[in-house]
Specification:
Chain lengths: 188, 246
């Protein structure tokens, strides 16, 4: 994955907003794997993950004119849109399950296929995973709860049985350590 | 909010959103603090690394064609307009509360010219004037201002609009556009606070034969205390029109 400057990302999003197919292709090539992988992790199967990719890119186009590079990076925006949609999907599943239970028509849910094997095909992905090894179990757990679960620091603290301040520190430290570790690997 | 208070909330702002008005307070602080913006950028890089490490997976090859085809369908269903987006019904409803379209176009045109004169932006194109009039957020972001406030002037035989731009870099300005068919001569214009504690006169409006006039003020002073624009007859002091700017 190429690193791009924000000016280039802003122009890419602008082109995408103006229905440039090349821009759409570039955005897909840069972000689809992470959105798809997010769907696998959060939603548990390939079909749902593929739907998430489609829904994410449609939402990105519909909100492209609201992308503001001064507020954050392009990949952050894409990932948070995808995560928000995934969380909505999970909530609908919970609601549907509760509705079915209430009406006495609980389905026998066939076991979903397990997550597809994550393929380490890109160097940056491998480096990122090595960076993850620098986190403590507590830091990783707090970050996963906040990122995948959409939990607030208060909720993370309750789930982990730690003070709120500790939860905030763990999440922040985890992000800082990941960035530092990636930077060190890049310099080697 | 100070930097310590903001940095304590940056991870939640990143992974959030933070509840309002806290989120707005953090965003406002970030716009004016390079140090905190750097911290935010560092946290974003960390999140990007986390995403790569935990959930990067090659999707099926056919998904690419499917997604791009869906986007093509979306584009064909939504009619292209000048500017970035086709207006939705909600936007039309909001536009109906704004001044008449010629006012919005004229206001946007003068605003953009003024911005260019200040070297504020260089990327807004002529074809985006109408979109700019309806997209204060994008305009504000481009100029790096704090707020843009608009009010509608109404009076007997008179209509217009007032725009106040609050800058954080000492380049605040006010713009008043008025149409009053049949009116000629001079009209006094003033900015005031609804509490009545402050008043600032600006250049008068001069109506020619066309019954249209405009005036503006550019100042290093803050315009935040002012939330009203009044037009008065210079001879009698009679109130001709007023607008609340918010």
């Amino acid at each position: 994955m190429q690193e791009r400057d924000t000016g280039s990302d802003a122009s890419l999003v602008r082109a995408f907003a103006e229905r440039d197919a090349t821009a759409a292709s570039e955005l897909y090539d840069r972000f689809a794997s992470r959105v798809y992988g997010l769907g696998i992790v959060m939603l548990g199967n390939s079909a749902a993950a593929q739907d998430l990719v489609q829904d994410t890119f449609v939402k990105l186009w519909r909100s492209a004119d609201r992308f503001d590079e001064t507020r954050g990076r392009l990949d952050t925006w894409v990932l948070l849109v995808a995560r928000s949609l995934a969380i909505d999907s999970l909530r609908r599943r919970v609601l549907e399950a509760r509705t079915l239970e209430a009406t006495g028509t609980v389905r026998d849910v066939a076991p979903e296929p397990g997550p597809e094997e994550i393929a380490e095909t890109k160097d940056m992905t491998a480096r990122a995973r090595r960076a993850m090894a620098t986190l403590s179990d507590g830091q990783r757990a707090a970050l996963e709860l906040a990122y995948f679960g959409g939990k607030t620091s208060t909720e993370v603290a309750e789930l982990e049985g730690i003070p709120v301040g500790t939860a905030k520190t763990r999440i922040r430290t985890a992000l800082l350590k990941l960035r530092e570790a990636m930077g060190e690997q890049h310099e080697l | 909010m100070n930097c310590d208070e903001v940095r304590e909330r940056l991870t939640e702002h990143l992974l959030g959103p933070l509840e309002e008005p806290l989120g707005a307070d953090v965003r406002r602080h970030l716009r004016g603090c390079a140090g905190c913006r750097h911290e935010m950028a560092v946290l974003e890089e960390g999140m990007s690394t986390f995403a790569l490490a935990t959930h990067a997976a090659d999707p099926p090859a056919e998904l690419r064609g499917r997604v791009l085809a869906v986007l093509e369908q979306e584009w064909s269903d939504v009619a292209p307009v000048r500017g970035l987006r086709a207006p939705r019904p909600a936007r039309v409803a909001r536009a109906q509360r704004r001044p008449a379209s010629w006012m919005a176009l004229a206001a946007a045109a003068v605003v953009v010219v003024a911005a260019l004169a200040w070297g504020g932006i260089s990327t807004v194109r002529a074809s985006h004037f109408e979109a700019a009039a309806n997209r204060y957020d994008a305009f504000l972001g481009a100029l790096g201002g704090e707020n843009v406030r608009v009010g509608t002037l109404r009076g007997t035989g008179l209509e217009g609009s007032a725009v106040l731009y609050d800058s954080k870099v000492g380049q605040s300005w006010a713009l008043v556009l008025v149409r009053a068919p049949g009116l000629s001569g001079e009209v006094d214009v003033a900015l005031s606070s609804s509490s009545g504690s402050r008043t600032m006169a600006i250049r008068s409006l001069y109506f020619g034969q066309g019954g249209e006039a405009s005036t503006w003020l550019v100042t290093a002073s803050s315009l935040k205390p002012f939330d009203r624009v009044t037009l008065t007859d210079p001879t009698t002091g009679a109130l001709l029109a007023t607008a609340s700017v918010s």
